[in-house]
Fold this sequence. Notes:
mainly alpha
Amino acid sequence: MNIILVLIPVTLLVVAIAVALFFWAVSHQQFDDLDNPGILPLLEDDPDQGVPGDAAPSSSPDDAPPPDGGAGSPDVPPPAPE
């Protein structure tokens, strides 16, 4: 019978903490958008954003080096052979 005298205040304390946490979450807009966070893991990543340190080769032909192996632009002729 004495355990009831301990369990009732402990239960009331747990309920009070739960209610306080609920009101804290509501006041900090934790329940504003319930749909989008569940969809975010299913969306594909943006291909333009790479992982930092990722050295994936580019698939764009514009990024390829010139065929002569030089670093100049197409307007500059290659150096003359000696």
